[in-house]
Amino acid sequence: MKKMRMNQLLRGAFVAVIAVMLIGFTVSCSNDDDDNVNGAGKSHKVVFKAIASSGSNIDVAVYGIDGNPTTASSLSGSTWSSPEVTSESGAYSANVAVNAIGADASATLKVQIWVDGELKKEGTSSGQYLSASTSYTF
Predict the structure, then answer these.
(1) Cα dihedral sign for 117, 119, 122, 127?
(2) pLDDT digits (tens, 9 = 90+) for 68-117
(3) In sequence order, what DSSP letters do the residues of 27-95 get, joined into one string?
(4) Which of 93, 95, 91 is nearest to 82 (CA)?
(5) With the CA atoms of 33, 37, 43 and 44 taken in that order, what torsion angle do they form, in degrees rounded to the nearest 10?
(6) Half-sphere exposure of residue 114: CA atoms within 13 angstroms, side-chain side
(7) Exposed (0-12), middle (13-18) or buried (19+): which is 67, by Cβ within 10 Å?
(8) Residues 47-71: pLDDT tens digits?
């Protein structure tokens, strides 16, 4: 008799948990409004830039939008800028990472993400071996 009550209690608890999960899932999905997400449905003009201190040398840059990276290697000089990249409408993020060798231990490297002509995000690094990265969510 006790075993039968325990089985009924467990079944009832299982049904209650499943019901709560289904109701929660239904309520959470009914409130989704992806059109109000910042940047959703719009394309953007994106430019990635790197600026190293004087005497430093930029080696490689990896940049892209939504996991579609482009690698620019065999670079030289203390500045670099990517070609303008147009994001697809609904793109989520832009990312950039740049490596450089500084002139000395006090060298700096700054990477930037420009979206539609505005500076949106910046990352920095300092030292002789420089690696700076940043990402921006539209």
Answers:
(1) positive
(2) 899 999 999 999 999 999 999 888 899 999 999 999 999 999 999 999 99
(3) HHHHT--GGGSTTTT---EEEEEEEE-TT-EEEEEEEEETTEEEEE-S--SSEEEPPPEEPPTT--EEE
(4) 95
(5) 180
(6) 13
(7) exposed
(8) 999 999 999 999 999 999 988 899 9
Q: Please, which pLDDT band fits residue 31 given cuts at 50, 70 and 90?
A: very low
pTM for this predicted structure: 0.71
Say if residues 70 and 62 touch (Cβ distance below 8 Å): yes
**Dihedral angle, C-alpha 11, 13, 17, 20, nearest 10 °:** 110
Cα 60-43-63 angle, rounded to 5 deg: 10
Residue with tokens 């040398």: 57
Question: Is 115 buried (19+), middle (13-18) or exposed (0-12) by CB count in 10 A?
Answer: middle
Residue 64: CB atoms within 10 Å = 19
Task: Please choose, from the candidates 46, 95, 99, the residue with its C-alpha nearest in 3D space to the C-alpha of residue 75.
Answer: 99
Task: Report the sign of the C-alpha dihedral through residues 25, 136, 84, 68, in that order.
Answer: negative
Tokens of 84: 């303008």
